[in-house]
Amino acid sequence: MDLATIIGITLGTGLLLGAIALDGQVLSFWELKSFLIVVGGTIAATLVNFPLKELTGIVSIFKNSLVSKENDSTAMIHSLVDFAESSRREGLLALEEKAQSVDEDFLKKGVQLVVDGTDAELVRNIMEIELAFLEERHKSGQRIFEQMGAYAPAFGMIGTLIGLIQMLQVLDDPSLIGAGMAVALLTTLYGAVIANLFFLPLAAKLRLRSSEEIRYKEIIIEGVLSIQAGENPRIVEEKLKAFLPPDQRKQESADAPDEGVAANA
To answer: What Rg value do the Cα atoms of the chain yield, rounded?
Structure first.
């Protein structure tokens, strides 16, 4: 589970409720009509905006934002360097069995293409096409949450207009003005909170996860092509480390002597 997402949602909700509870009137901020206008309107508009086949996966998309899938780029670089060393010692055919021990289908596919003698340019095209469609699928999920984040405040404003109309219709009866004012203000509040605490942050989290996974798979593409070209394992490592942030590169450089000593020992 992604603790940052869970902690953020829980903390944000708790602080909002806590701030309201300081005056001891939490229930005064609950209005069923306002909730129905915002949530119902957002769901309805989303159904109009997207094909049903895209929305059927909304639950799994939401789970992806809560589940932290580790794509360890450093470990993958080490694996690819190991593959490069095996390839230089034993040949490309030795990689087929070695790839089966790695829990990464994208790498297995690339290695299989190389072992089958596929042209390097064709290998790159096939893997990049798969990567492009992966990115497009990710963007589809992001767009759903982004649109819901846009619709929620809009329906909050619609609810405000409904409340104001109701209020203006009963100006001659002061006892009924409060109900219309509650609908007017609370729908705006609900729309803003739902959009900015849930939908938009979840869309941003999915976008971040997507960029991390794409970078991870770009490392695999470059590693596979370098192995196919027969490049020196050290060159392969230096090339792939360019994908890492500077702090990770420094950590790798700091660990390298220790690994060398251990290997000599």
So the answer is: 27
- Say how far apart CA 199 and CA 58 lie, in whole Å: 12
The 8 Å CB, 24+ separation contacts for 235-242 are 236/80, 236/81, 236/84, 237/77, 237/81, 240/77, 240/80, 240/81, 241/77
| Locus of tokens 């060398």 | 260
Spatial separation of the C-alpha atoms in residues 156 and 151, rounded to whole Å:
8
Secondary structure of the chain: what % helix, strand, coil (to 5)? 85, 0, 15
Cα–Cα distance measured from residue 80 to residue 78, given in angstroms and rounded to the nearest whole number: 5
pLDDT digits (tens, 9 = 90+) for 10-42: 999 999 989 888 877 788 888 898 999 999 999
pTM: 0.79
pLDDT in tens, 114-158: 988 889 999 999 999 999 998 988 898 899 999 999 999 999 999
**Tokens, residue 178:** 């409060």
**What is the spatial distance between Cα 18 and Cα 197, in angstroms, rounded to a whole number?**
15
| Measured distance CA(222)–CA(232) in Å, rounded | 14
Biggest CA-to-CA distance, the chain: 92
